[in-house]
Structures are given as structure tokens and as C-alpha cells.
Design goal:
The structure is a homodimer. Chain A is built from 28 helices and ten strands. Chain A is mostly helical. Chain A has three domains: 209 residues, CBS-domain (Roll); 223 residues, Clc chloride channel (Orthogonal Bundle); 243 residues, Clc chloride channel, CATH 1.10.3080.10. In chain A, α27 links the parallel β8 and β9. In chain A, α5 runs antiparallel to α9, α8 runs antiparallel to α9 and α13 packs across α21. Chains A and B meet through α4, α5, α11, α12 and α20 of A and α3, α4, α10, α11 and α19 of B. Chains A, B: It is a multi-pass membrane protein. Chains A, B: This is Chloride channel protein. Chains A, B: InterPro entries: CBS_dom, CBS_dom_sf, Cl-channel/antiporter, Cl-channel_core, Cl_channel_pln, ClC.
């Protein structure tokens, strides 16, 4: 897959790339194509089709690449606009920035609150109905009702995903991560995706799937931020001239970072955890100002949720009364531990890490398998969803029958059984005064099941056999569920399996440890999270904020460190795996060691298409039509300069605006002034995904084809450049650190044309480099 | 002050700079100096002396600048070395990396523990003695003992700072921040500084100064990391060949980042806060691998401290028994609030922000005043320290006399008075059954005073008048104390004043709010911290970890946001101010708006000195002797190439090693192979501060002066370059983001020499640019 394609919605796999391999024979388009060096051209062209696209098994679609380069302000036309900015406009800009952060926080907080309440009520209704039928011993009817509702909800979620927004399926975190890395996957932040993500997530979680709403919340936050950043809608006349300052990649990306942080904050009620998640996992570029702004956003989310909870404590939030926003409580446990406990905890972390990496491995395989089914059409997608829903229903209704009825504990402070509310003791088929421990885990929402597993001071509450069954069931159901066409977060399945594993370990170590089994469940969850997600600080803080007990910090840290280290020696984090499966050209922060032995020239590939400072309209149009390139070097030539000089870089989108404005002249002359009168800087502002001017929108007359247009006003006169002999590793670091989209490669020797190629994201992809140089062996060397 | 000076300990203000202004007439050194453009040269040269040096009022010393550029691996010689690395070496490298993180954590944790216990015991002894004399009504003797001990301790601390390590005075956070930005201030991380920092901090805090041990702990952590990173000592034959992989700027800087995080973790027992502090305040460059490693380091610190506390609960840690490592406890307070409370909290934050920025303003003035005294010599320094110690003693012993004796509360769970241990009720001059509330704050350690102010559920404990007196006293004592020659942290004075302010506000709002006064004290402290330090997330987390109550999060966030925003509209954060006063050339993360209107060529200044690929030894030696430049472009010329080409960049330190190795030849030929046999890559590893080969160490014979040396093996063949017409803002971003030390400016036109100048840190300093272009008006535009 080529990362550098046109934005015109062309869905074919465009395998051309910008830049020329060697540049020794660079001509002016279209008359002279560069003749390529024979040694490399042939394998290069045949390899090309097989490089990045081969790993793009699922959803290999075209992704316009974003740039953090301030190109927009470097063009003449924008420089003028920038200079004319008055103080008041800067004030507007800053106010808007904070206003947007506020809105993102409010929106995401409300979405989180809504999602929680809806799940609580829908799932609550289902569970109440089932319980009532169970009371009347109408077991088969109960199963039918339970499975029927589950399948209905699941089918609805699947249908939304399959027909309205396929991009809403899955966690959404990998896509947000890719966006923040510069890859704008197709319609990943569209309004329809937002709608389906929220509704589908509510339906999916209510349907009893082993999925969470955390990943979807992150995606929701990002979608809300993106919609705000696009600045209203022209269709509904909701535009605002102030917004034009936000129509650039940098501000949009900042806002989406805020959205991702807000999502985690809303999902876990963990504001600091949200900021750290955005920093550690989501964002590829970070500035200190962003820390400050994400923090504000998550603070708003925290306040919104707090207001919501205050409202719900009055009992107005439906069946379960508290809106599902209670935190997991392992507080009040006295945390004292000895050396043996530490050894036990280390072991727990190590095994958790291994199980986590196996989880990743299996999820990978399952997604690849499901993708074959899903690609056959919406019908297949929905069938798969229904099949998994049926499997889940059978497990969660069938397995509790194998558990023995346990007598209610005498010293319990809560009533037992707790059938009509959230609580640890579900009676299921048991007589009064007894409860079914497996049903307490299965016949409830995932959040409640986790809460039950975390519950402290109740060591004997769950039998070892029940915990084994539950652990095995959720471990495999979690794996089977990810990849079907519903919005499905990965946090909750992992926490659920991890908590069951931890509590099980706690029961097994019961005789030798003083640690509470609820605490063991928490540590188990931490070990699984560390083993699958591979985050550290953010997970630690999220878990602490969830449980509200800072004294657990050293133990949680220890477990996370061990499990991440162990798991890292087997495979990559689950989000990185999904990124790879989806074929998104994610750019790693560090350069690979083999890049040290290559130079920039080695990976640049042709043909390179350049424009003259004042270019024939026909040439431009032909170049735009026949290539998918997004950036073209502009070269000043005699008679305007003494020798050919690199003037800068023009973007396809800006060229389209320029051509639409028809600022043509019959002669090759500078015509800046005329142009500025016809086109304003506002027209060049970045349009929303798929909203910009398309090539088909242009209406160039035949006689205009031979006219000239001055490209200087829209040329970014300060493109980042590297010398062709620059080490590829250093070029990669430059490209990644500055968030570039194009990088000009200039010749070392002065006898050559002023630019020998363009490096794009595609050229740094390992698949591309290994395609060119099959002899290079990537040796693993991670930090 | 020139940021780019030689490393040879030359203490004069070297105002030369690398690079040439225009480069139109660049010659080969030493025969032809570039003739400079007349329009700019004259004002440039006269301006030069006045630029950065003018603000360097205090301690304007030379700072070698570090670089994150992987130059070391780009040289031929290192490339070979890199390729020959075996898997086992990579394993060694990784093991060592984690081993160092472990050692840094252990060292800093132990230092923190030691510091706490020592302060607790020394100050405890002093307070016990005073109390016993007060009991016997020997008030004057009590004052003499109290003031005498204080002055003695203060004089000792001052003498250590004045005679052994002047660099140990002050907080140390600005210096660490500068180091992590690439400025290695003189002996800031030397072993003597470490020793004085620890001892001086213990003495200073024990002497009753309004100073903290937090800043010094950060500095201590950084020193420990730096000493480890220098890899033992050749003097004591403690070298280890494995360590050579750490002898580069990047690994050393990573370790110092870990050290800074460990320092905060040790000072506040806040591991997550430490990581965030390193991220938000200390570090200028961040990589995700660093997050992971700092987290590990702070986890080790947390465990060390926990073991220490466990040990101390057995009563073996001296007078006060618990080693001063108790956290502030505001837990157990029910945090419910209404809209009026929120308004009150916002107001509290706003006023706190204003007071904080006034604090910064006054600290700035006081430091400038003190620096005039301190520069006169060690005697003056110590006298100043003694004067402030006397003032502090008078305040803390004299002011409590104005307070009325209050009856011990009847419902108190603790005994009253609490004279022989840490506690809220000091009797001072009061009869049994009564306590002096002002003495409870003054006649104790700063930590205990904060704990008393934070104490919940004791609204009436402190009178409003006492709080006013205490607030005024610590606010001004804190300002007077910073800048004297003792290690003095800023966190504790600010928290102390803020807590007094908050508790005062709590007493005043008593009738209208339901919030606890202890909580108000916490929020007051947060508002002051936000107003002076201007951190957000890290402060928030540190405060939460100090108080161990996550439910306070939304309020603390709110206060921090408000106070930082308010204070930011007046002046900069206190650490940035100190950096500026010290004249350290700190490079901001963002480019200033006026830089958009300049291009790289505009700020480059000459003369440029370049070397040929195979250069005369005499030329090199002369260049090294007559300039302070640290990097020299190497240019390949005919007959070796067709036209002059930029080959790369050599560093002064590498040239010195090369010259010392005497790999000379009589002819201008390539002699790579011979050289590699005589010098190993290990010799080029970065030496510790001031430990490298000096120019005087070279012993070049007269006949060798006319011989040639091949510079190619030590040339970094991939220097980062910018075209001369590149926007200065973009060049600055490139320079800062990649952590460069030198950046080559290449010509746009092909008819010019291959390099027209070098950009260094100095060239991006606002003072330099305003010196060149006095017409530019910097307009404030912060985010």
C-alpha cells in the first residue's frame, strides 16, 4: 500500500510513488521522464506491488498522510495573511483553542455518561427479565429470552457497522493512533462513524459480548474533536470565519489528541490516566502545551461525569440507579506484604505477561481469519456477529449450571442474593439463601463482573473451579469476539480475564499469602493489561484511579514492569499488531539499525515530477491526472535565475485551488498581485476529509491549457531537505520527529539538478526497503 | 554569552561564533578569512559583545553544548565498530541500561532517606533543646540556643557551598533543566557538587531556613546518574569496557532524566509524579522508551523508601521515630461541594496565581541583588547566609510571642501539647493545657508545619491572626532565602506559604462553605505551586500522591488550571526566570513568531572555518588554538572530487584525539587503514566533563606541522543541513526537535561554495537575533 496517494477518493491501489531513484536524468514533466538506473529499476517496479500492500490484509485502503510541517504559513499567500493578523485574532485563536478543549471535554463526557446509562438500562432490563423467568423455574424460556435479546442487540450493532460505517468496527484505538501518526484512514473520523460507534458500542456491550466500551470511547472522543475541528458544515450554513485558523493539520491533530485523552477519562473516570494514555500510547508527537490542554479536557470530562453521578444518586437514571459509574473498590484493604508475597507477585506478573502475549498472538490469528469472512459482504459480517452472540449467550447461560449452589455468607453486609441490582450474589437456579458464584460473574454486565472479582475481604466468595471455568471462558470469548463487525474495546475483556486469573492465583496462594484476593485480582488484571497493551505509566495510573488507592502503587508498578518485559520478548503490543494487520503505514519513532547502512538516495524511487516556477497549465493538469502524488517540487530556471534552483514544494490540494481560480496568463511572467485579488488564503485552508476540490471539479478550457500560471505564491519556499548521501536513519529521524509528509532530497554534487527526489512516508516503510534490498536482515533490537 | 565555546576551561567570555554571515567569500583557513558583507558586519561585531552576555548577570560561565545527534555512529570508525557489535554486546548494553536505572533509583532513594532522617534528627535535637529550656522559663537562653544552632548549621552549609562547590547553591532544577536542554553548565554534575548538595541541603533545612529539600533531591538524582554514566573512574582503575557504549550524549542525557525523576520520587514519595515532573518540567527531549525507564527508576525509589519506612516504624530512626517520611494526610474528609464552593475555589486559584507571580517577580529581584553580594567572595556569601539565618531565627522565635495561648481542644484524639514529637500543639510559653498556635507552625520543621496546616477536621486550631502572621512571614522569608549560598529548594516554601494562605481563606469562608479547612490549605498550596512553577499534570499528581486521596482530583485540577492561567499572563515560571538570570542559553521548544520573517542566512555569522578532507596538521592546530569552535565542516575538493563537496562535520574533541594519535602522512593521501590500527573507537568516546584531551596535552613536532592527516574516518558524513533560504522558524524547529549542536547551512544556488555557514544554539537566541535586527519587535504570543 502506498502511503502517499491522492485525496480524490480513488480507491485503486496506486503504487506509484514520488521521487526518482537516482535523479541523474531528471526531466521536466511531461516531455522527458527520467530514465532510471537499470540496476535498480526493474526489481523495484516489480517489487513495488508486493511491498506494503502485501501485509494490508484487512481494509487496505488509501490513507492521505497528514503533515505537521507548517507548510501553510510558509507560502507567500499565507505569510501575508499571517502578518495581517491583528492581536484580536490571536485572542480569538487562543479563546477558540480553549473553547474547543472545553467542548471536546463536554461532548466526550456526555457521550460516556450516555453510554454508561444506556448499557446499564438495556442490559439491566435483559437480566431482570431472565432472572424473573428463572424464579418461576421457566429455564428454557429464560434462555430463549436471554439469547434472543442478545442476538437481537448484536444483530442491530452488526447491521449498523456493516451498512452504515464499517470503520466503526473494532476498538478504534489503532486507527486513532495511526491518525496521530499522520495516517488518515478512510472515513475513520466521519460523523457516521461517530454515530455508529456510540450506538453500536451500547448495543454490543448490552448484548453481553465480552467487549468493552473503552476503545470505542477513545474513538468517540477523537471523532467529536475532529468534527469540531472541521469547523461546522457548509451544507447547513454553520460556518464561522474564526475557524479558518484551525484548518490545518497541526491544530486538528492537537484536538484529536485531546479527544483521545477525553475518551479514556470518560471510560475509566481517570483524568490523569487519560492524559498519560494520550501521551504514552496515542500520540506520536507531543508538545508541552498539549499536556496542559489535554489535562484541561480531561478535567472537564471528570466534572461532567461527577455532575452525572450526582444526578444519578437521586435515582433518576433507571434500573440500576447509579448509572454504572461506580469505581471498583478495593480500598480499605491493608496492604502489607512480605518477601514471599513479592516473589508471588513477580511470578503472577511473569505468567500474566506470557498469557497476555498468547492473547495477542491468538487475536492476531482470529482477526486474519475473520477478515476473510467479513470481506465477503455485509450479510456474512452480520452472520458472524450473530454466531458469536449465540456462542457467548450459550456460555454465559449454560456454564453456571455446572456450578454448585453456595450458601449466602452469614457475615455479609449486603443482602444475599442480589438479583435485582448489581451485586456479588446471583441466585440463578439456586434456592433462596443460596447463590451461584459462576452466575454472579456471567449473569451480569462486564463492569459488574470485574467489580465482583475485585471485591475485597471475601476470599471464599468464588470457588476455584468456578474461577477456572470463568477465566477460560472469558479468555477465549474475548479472543473470538475481537474482529467481528461491532465496536469492541479490548480493555474490558483483558481486565476481566486478568482479574479472574488474579483471583484464581489468590485462591491458590491463599494459604501462604496475607494479600487479599481482591488485590490479587487487581494485580492479575494489571499483568494482563501489561502483557497485551504494553503500556506502563498510563495503565498504572488508570488502575489507581479506578481503584482509588495509591498505596497499591508499588505492587501495580512491579507487576506491570514484569509482565511488559516478559511479553515484549515474544511479540508486539496488540494495537501495533492491529495497525499492521490493517496495513496502516505507521511510522515508528526510532530508526531501525539497518537504516544506518543505507543512505537517502538508496530508497528514493521515481519518476520524479517537477514543475517550473511559472508552469504551463496543461503540464500541471496532466501531472495531476496521471499521478497520485501529493507534493511536487518547484524549480526556478533561467531566465528567472542564473541556474536551476529549488524554489520549494507545492501541494496537490493547493494546485487544485489555484487552477480553479484560473489565474492564468498568456506569457511566462510573475502575476502574484492579480492572483491575490482573486483567491483568499481562506480558500487554501485544509478541507475536511474528502471535502476538498476534486480534479473533476476543474473546468479548464482548451485554450487555457497553453497558458501559464505562477506557482510562487502557493509554493512552500522552505521545504525540509536532506543531502542524498544522508544516512537513512538520520533522514528517518528528521522525517518522523518533525512530522513531515514530503522531504526533498538534494544532490551532493553541484553539477546535478537541484533536486533528485522526494522522500515520503512510504520510502521509510520496512516493507519497501526490504523489497529493494532483500539481503538486509532486520535484526531485532528493541529497547 | 556564547553557547558554543570550547571545552578547555577557558573562562573568558568567548564571543566568537561558528559559521559565516553570508558566505559569499568563504576561504580556507588560515590563509583567507572571509570578507564580510559591510552592511551587517560592523553592527554585528559591536553588537556581539552585548547580546546574550548582557542578561548573564549571575554566573555567566561557559557551557559546552551537548548534542542528541547520533554523530558518533556516523563516523567511519564508529560505523565499523557498530557493525562489529555482537548480539552479546547488545545484550550487555540493554542489561546495563536497566542496571543503571536500578542503581540510580537505589542511590537516589537512599539519599532521600538519609536526608530525611538527618533533618529529622538534627532539627529534632534543636527543637527539643529549645522546648526544654522554654519549659524552665529560661526564654533568653532558649533563644540563644535556638538561634545559635541555626546560625552554626547555616554557616556550615554556606561554607560548604562557598568553598567546595558553588554550583550546589540554589535549587538545582534550573541547571538540570538546562543540562537536559543541552547546556552543560560548569561542574554542575561534579562529585563535589553532589556531596555539597546532600550535606548542605541537610544542614540548611535543619537550620530552620524556609527552604525545601525537593529541588536539591532532583539535583542529587541527576548527579548520581551523571556519575554512573561517566563510567567509573580511571584514577581509581574502576573502568569497565562495557561502559563505553554509554559514553555519548544521548545515553547520558537519558540517565540524567531518570535521575531527575528519581529525585522528585524520593523527595515526595511520588513515583508517578516523578515521571511526570521529568516529562513536563525537566526534559526537553522525550522518547517513549524513556517513560518506561523513568517509571522503573521511580518504582525502585518507592520501594527503597518503603523499606526505609518499614525499618523506621520499629523506632530505630532517632528522635522522631518515623523518619519524616509520613505523607500529608487530608484523607477521610468527605469531599462534597456545591456551586458556591466551586466559585470560592476558582477565586482562591486566581488570587493564588497572582500571589505566585508576585513571588516570582520578587524572587527575581532578590536573586539579582544577592548575586552582587555573592560575587564579592566566599566571605560575603557566608555573611549573607548568617544574616538570613538570624532573620529567620528571630522571626520563628519572636513572632509566636504575639500569639495568644489557646486551650487544648477537648475532643482531640491526640495528646496536647505535642512538644516532644511532631504534632499540631506546641506549648511554647503557654501554661499546661494550652498551646501556642503560631509556635505550632514556627517551632517545627517545614514538613511538619505543612502537615499541621493540611490537618483535617480541626477548623479552629489556628487563629486567623496567627495564619496572617505566619503567611506573611513565610512568604517573605521564602523570597529572601532563595539566592543565598545554600542548597535551597523552592517547593516547600511555596507549599508552606500556599497552605497558610489556603487555610486562611478556609477560615474566612468558614461560614459559607462546607469544605474542610485542611482541604482549603491543600488547594491554597496547589494555587501557589501553579502560580510559581507553572506545571500542571505533574503538580497535580504529586499533590495527590502526597495526600493519597484521588477524590480531590477535580478540585486540585481546577485550582491549578486557574492559577497557572492567571500567573502566565504576568510573567514566566520561576525556573525559567532563574535560567535566564543565570544566563544559560536555554532553547525553547517553539519558534518565536518573528522567526518566520527571517531566513537561516540572516542569522549565520562568520568567519566560517572549514577543513579539507585531507588537511595540513598545522592548519588544524591553528584553527583549534585561535577559535573556540566545536565543529568544523569538512570539504572534499579536487583532485579527490570533481567540484568542492560538503563531506561532513568534525568535532573538536575528535580532532584532538586524532592529533594525539599522530596519524600523519607526508602526502595528501587517504590513510584510513593505518589510522584504525592506532586508534580505537573507544578513544573517541565522550569523556566526562573537563576530562577530555586538552589542546595543551598535544605535543606536535615542528616537522609534523606540514604533514597531512586524513579527516574522513572521524567525519560525521551525514550532518543535518538546511538551505540558506530556509525559514528561520523551521530551522529552529529542526535544531530543537533533533537536539542538534551544529547545523550546516548550504547554499541555494549551485555556483557557491558547498557550505555557507554553521548554525549553532547561539544563533537562535533572541538576544543574538535582536542584536542583529533591532527593529524586530517580539510580540508575546504564548499558548
Amino acid at each position: 500500500m502506498d502511503g502517499e496517494n491522492n485525496v480524490n477518493g480513488n480507491d485503486a491501489l496506486d503504487i506509484e510513488n514520488e521521487g526518482s531513484f537516482d535523479g541523474r536524468d531528471i526531466g521536466r514533466y511531461p516531455s522527458e521522464f527520467s530514465e532510471r538506473n537499470m540496476t535498480y529499476t526493474e526489481p523495484l517496479l516489480t517489487k513495488r506491488t508486493n511491498t506494503t500492500s502485501q501485509i494490508a490484509i484487512v481494509g487496505a485502503n488509501l490513507c492521505p498522510i497528514e503533515s505537521l510541517d507548517y507548510e501553510i504559513f510558509e507560502n507567500e499567500i499565507f505569510k501575508q495573511d499571517w502578518r495581517s493578523r491583528k492581536r484580536i485574532q490571536i485572542f480569538q485563536y487562543l479563546t477558540l483553542k480553549w473553547g474547543f478543549a472545553l467542548l471536546i471535554g463536554l461532548g466526550t463526557g456526555l457521550a460516556g455518561f450516555l453510554s454508561n446509562i444506556s448499557v446499564e438500562n438495556i442490559a439491566g432490563f435483559k437480566l431482570l427479565l431472565t432472572t424473573n423467568l428463572m424464579y418461576k423455574h421457566r429455564y428454557f424460556e429464560a434462555f430463549l429470552a436471554y439469547a434472543g435479546i442478545n442476538i437481537g442487540l448484536a444483530a442491530a450493532a452488526g447491521a449498523l457497522c456493516a451498512f452504515i460505517a464499517p470503520a466503526a468496527a473494532g476498538s478504534g484505538i489503532p486507527e486513532v493512533k495511526a491518525y496521530l501518526n499522520g495516517v488518515d484512514a478512510h472515513s475513520i473520523l466521519a460523523p457516521s462513524t461517530l454515530f455508529v460507534k456510540i450506538c453500536g458500542s451500547i448495543l454490543g456491550v448490552s448484548a453481553g459480548f465480552v467487549v468493552g466500551k473503552e476503545g470505542p470511547m477513545v474513538h468517540t472522543g477523537a471523532c467529536i474533536a475532529s468534527l469540531l475541528g472541521q469547523g461546522g458544515s457548509r451544507k447547513y450554513h454553520l460556518t464561522w470565519s474564526w475557524l479558518r485558523y484551525f484548518k490545518n493539520d497541526r491544530d486538528r491533530r492537537d484536538m484529536i489528541t485531546c479527544g483521545a485523552a477525553a475518551g479514556v477519562a470518560a471510560a475509566f473516570r481517570a483524568p490523569v490516566g487519560g492524559v498519560l494514555f494520550a501521551l504514552e500510547e496515542a500520540a506520536s508527537w507531543w508538545r508541552s502545551a498539549l499536556l496542559w490542554r489535554t489535562f484541561f479536557t480531561t478535567a472537564v470530562v471528570a466534572i461532567v461525569l461527577r455532575v452525572g453521578i450526582q444526578y444519578c444518586t437521586l435515582g433518576r437514571c433507571g434500573l440500576f440507579g447509579e448509572g454504572g459509574l461506580i469505581m471498583y473498590d478495593v480500598g480499605g484493604v491493608r496492604v502489607t506484604y512480605s518477601v514471599e508475597d513479592i516473589v508471588g507477585v513477580l511470578l503472577l506478573g511473569a505468567i500474566g505477561g506470557i498469557l497476555g502475549s498468547i492473547y495477542n498472538y491468538l487475536v492476531d490469528k482470529v482477526i486474519r481469519m475473520y477478515s476473510i469472512i467479513n470481506e465477503k459482504g455485509p450479510g456474512y459480517k452480520i452472520t458472524l456477529v450473530i454466531a458469536i452472540a449465540l456462542l457467548t449467550s450459550c456460555c454465559s447461560f449454560g456454564l453456571p449450571w455446572f456450578a454448585k449452589c453456595l450458601p449466602c455468607p452469614a457475615d455479609s453486609t449486603v443482602s444475599c442474593p442480589t438479583d435485582h441490582k448489581s451485586g456479588n450474589y446471583k441466585s440463578f437456579q439456586c434456592p433462596p439463601g443460596y447463590y451461584n458464584d459462576l452466575a454472579s460473574l456471567f449473569q451480569t454486565t462486564n463492569d459488574d463482573a470485574i467489580r465482583n472479582l475485585f471485591s475485597p475481604r471475601t476470599t471464599k466468595e468464588f470457588n476455584i473451579s468456578s474461577l477456572v471455568v470463568f477465566f477460560a471462558a472469558v479468555y477465549f470469548l474475548g479472543i473470538c469476539t475481537y474482529g467481528i463487525a461491532i465496536p469492541s474495546g479490548l480493555f474490558i475483556p483483558v481486565i476481566l480475564a486478568g482479574a479472574a486469573y488474579g483471583r484464581l492465583a489468590g485462591r491458590l496462594f491463599e494459604s501462604v499469602t496475607k494479600l487479599d484476593t481482591g488485590l490479587f485480582a487487581l494485580l492479575g488484571a494489571a499483568s494482563f493489561l501489561g502483557g497485551t497493551m504494553r503500556m506502563t505509566v498510563s495503565l498504572c495510573v488508570i488502575l489507581l484511579e479506578l481503584t482509588n488507592d495509591l498505596l497499591l502503587l508499588p505492587l501495580v508498578m512491579l507487576v506491570l514492569l514484569v509482565s511488559k518485559s516478559v511479553a515484549d520478548s515474544f511479540n508486539k503490543g496488540v494495537y501495533d499488531q492491529i495497525l499492521k494487520i490493517k496495513g496502516l503505514p505507521y511510522l515508528e519513532a526510532h530508526a531501525e539499525p539497518y537504516m544506518r547502512n543505507l543512505i537517502a538516495r538508496d530508497v528514493v524511487s521515481g519518476p520524479l515530477i517537477t514543475f517550473s516556477g511559472i508552469e504551463r497549465v496543461g503540464n500541471i493538469l496532466h501531472a495531476l491526472r496521471t499521478t497520485g502524488h501529493n507534493g511536487f517540487p518547484v524549480i526556478d530556471e533561467p531566465p528567472f535565475t542564473d541556474a536551476p534552483e529549488l524554489c520549494g514544494l507545492v501541494l496537490r490540494s493547493h494546485l487544485l485551488v489555484l487552477l480553479k481560480g484560473k489565474n492564468f496568463s498568456k506569457e511566462r511572467v510573475f502575476i502574484r498581485r492579480n492572483m491575490l485579488q482573486r483567491i483568499s488564503a481562506l480558500d487554501f485552508a485544509k478541507a475536511g476529509s474528502g471535502k476538498g476540490i476534486k480534479l473533476e471539479d476543474l473546468d479548464i478550457l482548451e485554450e487555457e491549457m497553453d497558458m501559464y500560471v505562477d506557482l510562487h505564491p502557493i509554493t512552500n519556499a522552505s521545504p525540509y531537505t536532506v543531502v542524498e548521501t544522508m544516512s537513512l536513519a538520520k533522514a528517518a529521524i528528521l522525517f518522523r520527529q518533525l512530522g513531515l509528509r514530503h522531504m526533498c532530497v538534494v544532490p551532493k554534487s553541484q553539477t546535478r539538478p537541484p533536486v533528485v527526489g522526494i522522500l515520503t512516508r512510504h520510502d521509510f516503510m520496512p516493507e519497501h526497503i526490504f523489497g529493494l534490498y532483500p539481503d538486509i536482515k532486520p535484526h531485532r533490537w528493541t529497547e
